[in-house]
């Protein structure tokens, strides 16, 4: 860790806490419907929307009704996104005359964006029209993020509820339509508008123009030797080479409404990108300041939701404990990946290439990284984007040294609960908290409880499903890919690294991250279908058990803490929670990781 890395990390974490605390309190107020008087005009508009849709904002539903509403709404979004891609050739806002997207790619992309994954098997600037990018993809970035936030708010209500109430079949956990609407209107939309304006000030483009042909800088900068009929360079009377001006060359510069999409892609932990190279593109990430604030935006809402949790359960220590567990794992990843990349390629070091006193390359491993950002900003981004279900990249993880590339893969495989996605990170961590108190209960021989609610067989069955479904999807999907000729055909780097590319892709899809190792050609019917199925079940096969737990907890009466109750706000619980996340998340993938990044690192470090 260089001094620059330490300073950037300190500023980053200070801003994450400093901005996350008040944002978390605001989101708690929004979830509980507590608005200041000056917002009454906006509340009236919100209520008018409910009347128009026939929704009673005061109603609280059971978990099954909440779940059905969520799934139906998301499936409708899937159909709309699919249809807009297939019809984009005949729709407006298509100045480049983009053709209709293929059925398998449309299927994959539609699932990707409704699940907050934003995996992209296509190049945005060469595939999607402006209408598709905005009306289909950017809209789903808002709605998928709001869906995740609604789920975690419903789960928190399960802990807060004091009894079964009058809801048929269990306790009420709120109203999906209200939760989604409020999180969109009062959190995601205003923050995105402000952030988009800032991004345009930094140089991120925002227009609906046709692509521009620009003359490149080298036109009059170089002189080329002029050859004669025999192909030999001509010389003048003095024997000097005869030169001619270089031929004028042009480059097509992509345009489009990028800033508005980039804002919600980061704030909503959506990931993806308007352009194919994502946040490494200067039109998406033009300056160091834009880079830093985009990086901050990735984790801002997920971190703030920890404080929302503390505010809603009326014990801020609970939120701080969860935040602390996330932060410890996050910092451990940063402290591992940055020195690995600063150390450079071990094979180069062994050969004495650009050898510094520390026996490493003085510039570190800069392959696949923007010189505008360097190693420090690249590795911090890599950890943040894979801790959250974001998936945007400002460097190519495929070009990292093997163990360094394994860190983003591992952060995804932990379930992306280290801050995690908007909503999904916190409800994933709370599932691990339930597991942690269950393990503690087994140790002391009493019924486990968390926040005054007993954790009984039903909650543990749902917890087991939520924790195990993703590793099952990832590992089985990887097995199918490596044993299928159609799967192996997309691998650009055969051997160990090719296996890592496939494992990373399935891990990214199953955990709804969306980033890629960049060496896998996945825009084929086989990969689009496989990854689409994995993304769908990786999202909803976890949401359903989480909402079932919320409904079950809401139906239970709260019990007062006793001498045998495990305090869930102290250091011991934080350690137990970290252990649960690391051990359960890591052990599922150890054999697969050993076949990929670990063996590749050993191969790279060993002499030939």
List the helices and strands and how they pair.
Blueprint: H1 3-31, H2 40-53, H3 63-87, H4 103-114, H5 124-127, H6 130-160, H7 176-202, E1 212-215, E2 223-225, E3 243-245, E4 250-253, H8 258-267, H9 288-312, H10 316-342, H11 346-351, H12 374-387, H13 402-413, H14 424-444, E5 449-450, E6 453-454, H15 457-483, H16 485-488, H17 496-510, H18 525-554, H19 571-587, H20 590-605
Antiparallel strand pairs: 1-4, 2-3, 5-6
Helix pairs in contact: 1-9, 3-4, 3-6, 3-18, 4-18, 6-7, 6-8, 6-18, 7-8, 8-9, 9-10, 9-12, 10-12, 10-13, 10-19, 12-13, 13-17, 13-20, 14-15, 14-19, 15-17, 15-18, 17-18, 17-20
Structural overview:
By secondary structure, the chain is mainly α. It has a domain at 421-605. Helix content is 60%, strand content 3%. The protein is built from 20 helices and six strands. The strands form three sheets. Strands 1-4 form a two-stranded antiparallel sheet. Strands 2-3 form a two-stranded antiparallel ribbon. It has a two-stranded antiparallel ribbon with strand order 5-6. Strand 5 and strand 6 form a beta hairpin. Helix 3 runs antiparallel to helix 6 and helix 14 packs across helix 15 (457-483). The radius of gyration is 26 Å and the shape is globular.
